[in-house]
Amino acid sequence: MANSFTKKEPSDGSILDKRPTADDDDAKLHDVGFESSGLERNFNTWSLLFMSFCTSVTWEAISSASAQALTSGGSSSFVWGFVASAVGTMLIAMCLAEYSGMIPTAGGQYHYVAKLAPPKYRRIFAWFAGWITMLGWVTCSLAGIFATAMQIQAWAILFSDTYVYERWHTSLLVVGLTTVFTLFAIFEIKRLHRVIFIAMFAHTVGYFATSIYLLVHVTPKNSAEYVFKDFTNLSGWESDGVSIRLLPPR
């Protein structure tokens, strides 16, 4: 594919500015057979990068999944399972990065399939890819909102002696949070990139605060042999293989 980045001469005429612009993005879309949607671009490079960090919820997801991992294989399965998942995730990310470099569209996977699949099967493959991707977005978003609702209830239980836990409270919180997030995305989308910067700050500070607190206050500390070799199957399944497969992907 021909390089579509245009070189613009600055006012002083001394050097050529090679930084990509919105027009360059539109030109790249045109090169692969798509036209710009005309939607306003509210994110910059940093906000997109920070959004990727925050939506990956790396250490937060590990914290929430640690109990299941420790009972379904022990510390060694937790550590080495994370390594295996990280390698697999990196391979997937490298493949998607290659595709997004060739076809830089917001549609993502279904656009890749529509352009690269055999012509005979493009429509059906792209249809399935699009719906599977969308359902993945919905379920992942709902899982995050559900976890937030349960965390709010956990705070209520921790700080209030009078609060009585009810499961329908969780459902009500999920509906309320979803409504708030939806309204924000519709009416305050221009402010979203600022919220992402705040979220990245909380994400980073929370990681260091949690790590330092655990290293300082958790006693006694287990040996390296326990961390890297111990295997414990408390999942209820007799087969260790089944128990390991129950581990979450993170």
TrEMBL record:
Positions of region (Disordered): 1-22
Entry annotated with the keyword Chaperone: no
* InterPro entries to which the protein is assigned, alphabetical: AA/rel_permease1
* GO cellular component annotations of the record: membrane
Subcellular location as annotated: Membrane
Q: Which UniProt keywords apply?
A: Membrane, Transmembrane, Transmembrane helix, Transport
Q: Which residues cross the membrane?
A: 46-66, 78-97, 124-148, 168-187, 194-216
**Record keywords: Transmembrane included?**
yes
Q: What is the membrane topology here?
A: Multi-pass membrane protein
Please list the GO terms describing molecular function: transmembrane transporter activity
Q: State what protein this is by name.
A: Uncharacterized protein
Organism of origin: Fusarium falciforme
The major lineage groups are:
Eukaryota, Fungi, Dikarya, Ascomycota, Pezizomycotina
